[in-house]
Structure formats: structure tokens, C-alpha cells
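Intended use. Records like the one below are meant for learning the mapping from a protein sequence to its folded structure. Do not use them to infer anything beyond what is encoded.
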Amino acid sequence: QVQLVESGGGLVQTGGSLRLSCAASGRTFKNYAMGWFRQAPGKEREFVAGISWSGGPISYADSVKGRFTISRDNPKNTVELQMNSLKPEATAVYYCAQHRSPFSVAVPTSKSYQYWGQGTQVTVSS
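Structure written out for the chain above:
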């Protein structure tokens, strides 16, 4: 049974930074692309960043390019999202997700991901 557990969310002021972490268990982590998505109140879930099974290629939503960095640590079975220069519009629940298929590249479509974490709240105050 795959489990994804996010941590690291919280309240931060505009311009601040947060680092989210997702711990995975249940199948061979290094073989699967991982993604971060977010959902703000009243909005659809949207892609934030993804990292392929091999560590590359990496993709980002245009809204976070240059400010967010996704990385993975295969020996620790974790994927992280470093978020810098945060803006109020980043306020959302952030979800970690694991791709359906092994040896896949990260894609921005949520349907491509089979397993999801419970989410962690990020709130950016203005």
C-alpha cells in the first residue's frame, strides 16, 4: 500500500520561504515520477512542479518558475519543494502525488498520478 505523507506547511509572510517534504512508502520510490499540486479554496487543483523518476526532466508551472525548486532524495524516499519569494496567491493546500507508471516523466496532468498525500496547508499573508 503506497502512502505519501506531506509536511512543512504553515503560515508565512509575503516574500518568505517554506520547504515542503513528502515521505513515500509502499513501492520502489526511485522508479516513479513525483509531483506537487495545490488547491486553493474555490479553485481546481493545479500542477505546481514535477520531477521524473530519474531526477530529470523537471517541470514547473509558469507561476512558480524561478522561485520554487523540486528535488528528490531516493535513498530517503522523499521529494521536497523549496518555495521562495512566496506570494499570497500561493495560499493553498499542497499535495504530493506519485505517478501511475514506473520509469515515467513528470507531467502536469493530475490523472497521471495514482497516489496522493493528505495535503499540507500553506498560507501566505500579505
